[in-house]
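Reopening: structure tokens for the flavin-adenine dinucleotide complex, inputs below.
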Amino acid sequence: MTLNSRIPSGPIEKAWEKSKFDFKLVNPANKRKYSVLVVGTGLAGASCAATLGELGYNVKAFCFQDSPRRAHSIAAQGGINAAKNYRNDGDSVYRLFYDTLKGGDFRAREHNVHRLAEVSVNIIDQCVAQGVPFAREYGGTLANRSFGGAQVSRTFYARGQTGQQLLIGAYQALERMVAAGQVKMYSRSEMVELIVVNGRARGIVTRDLITGKLETHMADVVVLATGGYGNVFYLSTNAKGSNVTASWRAHKRGALFGNPCFTQIHPTCIPVSGEYQSKLTLMSESLRNDGRIWVPKSQGDKRNPAEIPETERDYYLERMYPSFGNLSPRDIASRAAKRVCAEGRGVGETALGVYLDFRDAIQRLGEQTIAERYGNLFEIYERITGENPYKVPMRIYPAVHYTMGGLWVDYHLMSTIPGLFVLGEANFSDHGANRLGASALMQGLADGYFIAPYTITNYLGETKLEKVGDDSPEAKAALADAESFTKRLLNTKGKKTVTQLHRELGKVMWEYCGMARNAKGLQGAITKIQGLREEFWQNVNVPGSGSDLNQQLENAGRVADFIELGELMCRDALMREESCGGHFREEHQTEDGEAKRDDEKFSFVAAWEYKGANGTPELHKEPLNFEYVKPAQRSYK
Ligand SMILES: Cc1cc2nc3c(=O)[nH]c(=O)nc-3n(C[C@H](O)[C@H](O)[C@H](O)COP(=O)(O)OP(=O)(O)OC[C@H]3O[C@@H](n4cnc5c(N)ncnc54)[C@H](O)[C@@H]3O)c2cc1C
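Re-run output (same inputs, fresh job):
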């Protein structure tokens, strides 16, 4: 298979404009003859479904929650980037492009990233027009704050609830189209199979999560905007329901999976507190604007933080990375936290924690200002830990947060299955080996509002699609596969719960494919996960039936997919004999412990092809060419 990324020719700053002009159009009267299925109605999916509806296509949209309002996007706290340069502090489209490529450790495609930076400015206008209540300065202009990996302030925010406010905007746009009859919304519906006819994506099979009924939906285009797969680690900051099922089932039908091992570990999360915990909580990166990160200088110092004098504190990020300090990118800040804890200087009961301290900011700005900026985050922290962060420093530690990997897509956001488009966190594009803070919301909305509507129209304009009904052999086969998968889960009747098996997978992933990886560990992890897969199918216990609401059954299907994905992630991490971004191979580090890339051998996107349950996945490589930004060793010193 040859990967064609369909990067347009000509100067990068004109590439998207030129593409839009070159794209085929579909005239308004013909648009209503086409149908599109949008799976996922978080920020990427809701914005796409609403926009396609506005354009006049017939859209069906699906989500597994009871409302699009509950998509994981609602959890996004800190903000959304855009190169508006409202602060007049030196920002530009080119700088956002540069920061994103560098932040991703030069493992992303230049043209996609440039386009993202270009359309970032439109997103803010669109959302303001929808009434998203972004924070404003006293004079009424939109406010900005800083996020990691950038020396300019380009992050727009709505207190610590930016995702929620953006989602309300996208949801309103979606509901407008639902009311207009352009979008039909299917909530509590989970996509369980992709239907591919004559090599093109032409439909999906869904399971109604209330009645258990399996249904086929046919269309001209299928869009997946189904979010990230961080829950493969069991403990993560993702919503508990976030999963890989839609992407994984599409992968098994022929969509290649890009850079599966590129996972983001976020430095500022509330530390794990016990074995039976099922979820981790993020403390937004925005807190690093004013909070200072430190540990005691001496090992095993168990004193109350207030008793540790200034001279005995190590503000290690400020010391190690003076230019970016507490706003060093996430991968770098996470590894630094791991290192100081490994030196025996971690804080809290488990000693796997560092302080995030607002004492100086409160002295400088007053408690009132800090409360205005971060009040709800402080409240979340206090409710979970019982400690008041206005009085004592927060304790934080890195946790799994975001997945840069995902289904491989070309410049048009189309996967290797024609007619299957993948948006938002579900695709692999744009963030390389490490995503900068506040860039996921930007990417999801760029994909949904401003990119996919053009590229999908182009696909429909240039493709002759025959009529395919749900009585086609492919549709029937996919439905039968979905039926037998559910039966198999229910009939195994083993002894272990789905959660037990998931937790075991998570431990292996965190230990061997987490913040640091090495060849021996990864080889062992692959064997362990293969064993776990076997055990799953012999020993899983899924109570209840398939004909009504059964969350154990839903979860079982998702965990079965996570186990297979986990193996692929370890294979990918083992193959990539270099360190880049969030992928840190212990064998490949500089003398001072920084990631050491190998551009000669590994400047490519790894795109994996599924080769059957017992086959070995095949690696395809998309070479990355850097014409505009020359890869250099990333330095934030
Ligand atoms: C705690 C937290 C805070 C964050 N804060 C920020 C931030 O401040 N700034 C930023 O840029 N990024 C942030 N991120 C990242 C960002 O929130 C996500 O990357 C982004 O919201 C993903 O949006 P999405 O539309 O791609 O997917 P999601 O919002 O995850 O939506 C997925 C959708 O797919 C549906 N779905 C999934 N599988 C199926 C299926 N099989 N069948 C049917 N439907 C399905 C779901 O129902 C849902 O509607 C944060 C992430 C976390 C975890």
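The domain at 265-400 is CATH 3.90.700.10 (Flavocytochrome C3; Chain A, domain 1). The two ends are 42 Å apart (CA to CA). Marking as resolved unless the reporter disagrees.
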